[in-house]
Amino acid sequence: MTMDVWVSLGGVLVAVLALYAALSRPMKRLEADIGGLRGEVKADIGGLRGEVKADIGGLRSELKADIAALDERVTMVDERLRSVGANVVRLDERVARLDDRVVGVDSRLVRLDDRVAGLDDRVYALAVGLQPRLHRPEGSESRGATGSAG
C-alpha cells in the first residue's frame, strides 16, 4: 500500500475517533435522559395504576351498593306481586261465587217469567170469558135475571 493510502486511512481513523469523542458525551447525556424518562414514566404509570385501582375500588363499592338497593327493591316488588296474586285469587273466588249467584238469579227469573206468562194466560182467559158478559146489552141481563126468577 502506498503512503497516500496510509495517510488517507489515518485521516479517516482520526475523523472517526474525533466523531466518537464528540458524540460520546451527547450519547451519555441521552442515555442518562432516557434513563430519567424511564423512571418518570414508570413512576407515572405506577401513579396511574394506583388511581385506576382506587377508581375501580370506588366503582365496585358504588356498584355493590346499587346492587344491594336494587335487590331490596326487587324483593319489595316480589312481595307486592305475591300480595297482588293473593288478592287476585280472592277476587277470582268472589267472582266465581257471584257467577253462581247470577246463575241462581237467572234461573229464578226464568221461573218468574214462566209464572208471569202463566198469569198472563189466565188473565187473558178470564178477560176473554168476561168479555161476552161485558158486551151484552143491558136488557138481556135483566131478562136473564127475571127469567130465572120466574
Notes on the protein architecture:
With 150 residues, the chain is mainly α. It is built from two helices and no strands. It has helices at residues 3-135, 138-149. It starts with a helix and ends with a helix.
**Which term fits the overall shape?**
rod-shaped
Query: How many individual helices?
Result: 2
**Poorly predicted tracts of residues:** 142-150
> Roughly what fraction of the amino acids lie in strands?
under 5%
Structural class assignment: mainly alpha
Give the strand tally. Answer: 0
**Overall mean confidence score, pLDDT:** 87
Distance between the termini: 194 Å
Q: Considering DSSP H and I runs of 4 or more, what fraction of the residues is helical?
A: over 70%
Order of helices and strands: HH
Radius of gyration: 60 Å
Largest sheet: none
Protein name: Apolipoprotein A1/A4/E family protein
Transmembrane segments: 6-23
Keywords: Membrane, Transmembrane, Transmembrane helix
In short:
By secondary structure, this protein is mainly α.
Topology, element by element:
Layout: H1 3-135, H2 138-149
